[in-house]
């Protein structure tokens, strides 16, 4: 089966992006004359930026990778090549707290992908025993701990199927309905409690931090 033209263009674009960008950086002069004839230094940061722009343009045209991923290229390349700091590279995209929460969601996806959340929950249940109160307490403890490092919403979404699987195993018991209610409420409360432990525990913490910084700046300017 032959390779389609679109696939061939995309594969070619993977190479046709960084190579011309490197050539562009090498051939650019270290100085140039402006309209008044004054000699102006063309800094390495400026040449790197122009090279990255060429790289991104080629990847956008060929769609070598997803367009949204190409848009994030400056965050990885510019700090690596010493053009700007990581803070300066990410500033045009969003507030630093947004990237902090993004990292939390990436952690949640990674934990869910490799089953770390399930392992933590099962290990906790092994320690708490088979008593209903102990199971609920163990699930709440695992949820609260995870919610300190992952968004509480994502933690609740990860722990829900684990709790449902435990409830399913106890379906033969007539008291399982009350147990299921306690389990679901326990996850919700534990995620909220653990979420206040760190900045990334819940987006509300980030909003509070930004608000506090804003009031601090205003108080500093209005102060004596």
Structure description:
- It is a single chain.
- This protein is mainly alpha-helical.
- The protein folds into two domains: 5-90, no CATH class; 96-203, no CATH class.
- 74% of the residues lie in helices and 3% in strands.
- It is built from twelve helices and two strands; from the N terminus they run H-H-E-E-H-H-H-H-H-H-H-H-H-H.
- The chain has helices at 5-16, 18-27, 44-62, 67-71, 73-80, 86-90, 96-114, 116-128, 132-147, 152-169, 176-195, 203-222, and strands at residues 31-33, 39-41.
- Strands 1-2 form a two-stranded antiparallel ribbon.
- The chain is elongated and about 85 Å long.
Task: Please give a handful of descriptors for the protein shown.
mainly alpha; 224 residues; 74% helix; 3% strand
Total domain units? 2
The dominant shape is elongated
Q: Structural class, judged by helices and strands?
A: mainly alpha
Helix content: over 70%
**Amino-to-carboxy terminus distance:** 77 Å
Main sheet attributes: strand count, strand direction, barrel closure: 2 strands, antiparallel
The number of helices is 12
How many distinct beta strands?
2
Mean pLDDT: 79
Strand line-up in the sheet with most strands: 1-2
The radius of gyration is 26 Å
Portion in beta strands: under 5%
Topology as a string of helices (H) and strands (E): HHEEHHHHHHHHHH
SSE inventory with pairings:
Blueprint: H1 5-16, H2 18-27, E1 31-33, E2 39-41, H3 44-62, H4 67-71, H5 73-80, H6 86-90, H7 96-114, H8 116-128, H9 132-147, H10 152-169, H11 176-195, H12 203-222
Antiparallel strand pairs: 1-2
Helix pairs in contact: 1-3, 2-3, 3-5, 8-9, 9-10, 9-11, 10-11
């Amino acid at each position: 089966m032959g390779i389609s033209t679109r696939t061939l263009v995309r594969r070619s674009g993977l190479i046709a992006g960084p190579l011309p960008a490197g050539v562009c950086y090498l051939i650019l002069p270290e100085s140039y004359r402006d309209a008044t004839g004054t000699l102006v230094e063309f800094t390495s940061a400026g040449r790197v930026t122009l090279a990255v722009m060429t790289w991104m343009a080629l990847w956008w045209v060929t769609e070598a990778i997803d367009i949204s991923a190409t848009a994030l290229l400056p965050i990885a390349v510019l700090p690596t090549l010493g053009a700007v700091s990581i803070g300066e590279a990410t500033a045009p995209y969003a507030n630093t707290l947004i990237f902090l929460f993004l990292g939390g969601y990436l952690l949640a996806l990674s934990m869910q992908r490799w089953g770390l959340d399930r392992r933590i929950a099962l290990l906790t249940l092994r320690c708490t025993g088979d008593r209903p109160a102990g199971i609920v307490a163990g699930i709440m403890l695992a949820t609260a701990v995870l919610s300190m490092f992952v968004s509480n919403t994502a933690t609740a979404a990860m722990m829900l199927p684990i709790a449902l699987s435990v409830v399913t195993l106890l379906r033969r018991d007539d008291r399982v309905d009350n147990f299921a209610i306690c389990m679901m409420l326990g996850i919700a409360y534990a995620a909220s409690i653990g979420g206040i432990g760190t900045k990334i525990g819940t987006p509300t913490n980030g909003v509070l931090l930004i608000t506090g910084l804003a009031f601090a700046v205003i108080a500093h300017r209005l102060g004596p």
